[in-house]
Amino acid sequence: MTKRLWWIIGAMLSVLALALGVWWFWGRPQDPLKVKAGVVAPISMQEDVYATGSVVPVSRQEVRVLTPGRVEKVAVKVGDAVQVGQILVALDTTLADAQVAQARVGVEAAQAVVNTAQANLDELKKAQSAAKSAAASFNVAGKGPDGADAEDGVSSLLPDFMSEQKNSVQESLVSPAVIAQAEGALAQSKVALKQAKEMLKVAQVQQGQLVHKAGMAGTVLEVNAQEGNLTSVQLPLVVVADLSEMNVEAQLNEVDAGKIRLGGKVTISSKMLGEQSVQGTIVEIAPTAVSKPSIQGSSSPTVGVKIRLEKAPLELKPGFTVAVEIVVATKEGVLAVPQEALFQEGNKNYVYKIQAGRLEKTEVTIGIGNDTHQEITSGLTAGDQMVLDPSTDFSEGMLVTPEAGSGVS
Question: CA within 20 to 30 Å of 114's CA: 97, 141, 155, 340, which one?
Answer without folding.
Answer: 97
